[in-house]
Amino acid sequence: MSTSPASALPAAPPPSRWRQAASAVIHDPVMLGSLLLLLLLVALTVGAPLLASHDPGALTPRARLQGSSDVYWLGTDSLGRDLLSRVLYGGRLSITLAALVSLIAIVAGLVIGLAAGYVRRLDAPVMRLMDGIMAIPGLLLAVAMVALGGANIVTMVIAISIPEIPRVARLVRSVVLSVREEPYVEASIGSGTPALKVLWRHILPSTINPLVVQATFVCAAAILTEAVLGFLGLGFPPEIPSLGSIIAEGRPFFQRAPWIVLVPGVFLALLILAVNMFGDALRDRLDPRLSRKTKS
């Protein structure tokens, strides 16, 4: 029996993960819009030395509280400093700090969650320790650590990371407990496979999707916490621009020069909105249960 030429052709290889991810982003308007907005804001902050024509800390008393002009595109603050330069540099500081906090929280929470979920003897004491840390309000813990350790990048990152680690650890632990009961994992354990190999091959890949989504929420929370600390006067020193401190400094002059508060406030709101919307869309895409609900 002769075969047709079409059936004799080899099957096309499945699309790569990068192509699947790009296709998912293109066909999801919420994910695409939030990602483009986030990339735009990040590009503006990364290009701050090129886009900002003034030193963010340069004082020009004669130009104080000026509106938008050819020299100062977004106006100046109460000390005559260029608002565009300060917002861009402040946004870059917030994004850098959020990335470091997200990295530390994800790595530490992953290690703790894997240990607690896989080693049953560690589960109860480790989770009670995580519950104790979660019982402390994150903002108050950050305020206390900054007051004791000083307002520097290391103290700020550690202070904001500690409250996020238990949330990541509990998420990873729940994934490990569910995957550990799978037949293929039990068969691998029963065959004498070392624990580290089981974790690396079978359990760790199942935690990647939840961790990617959780990282976006940690970033948004870190940006907001840093802004709150700066607004309360507990953030970085005044010579280092941050979005929270810029809003706090412009609050007394809001009726005369509202742009001092509105410009950094809108930038901060757009940044947090873009990160949260991207995280929500990513969660809907990576969670098969939510995908089935949206399709039905």
Automatic annotation (TrEMBL):
Bilayer topology annotation: Multi-pass membrane protein
Positions of the ABC transmembrane type-1 domain: 95-279
Keywords per UniProt: Cell membrane, Membrane, Transmembrane, Transmembrane helix, Transport
PANTHER family membership: ABC TRANSPORTER PERMEASE PROTEIN, OLIGOPEPTIDE TRANSPORT SYSTEM PERMEASE PROTEIN APPC
CC annotations in GO: plasma membrane
Transmembrane regions listed in the UniProt entry: 30-52, 95-119, 139-162, 211-237, 257-279
Protein name: Putative D,D-dipeptide transport system permease protein DdpC
GO terms for biological process, alphabetical: transmembrane transport
Matching InterPro entries: BP-dependent_transpt_permease, MetI-like, MetI-like_sf
Alphabetical list of Pfam families matching this protein: BPD_transp_1
Organism: Achromobacter kerstersii
Family (UniProt): Belongs to the binding-protein-dependent transport system permease family.
Locations listed in the record: Cell membrane
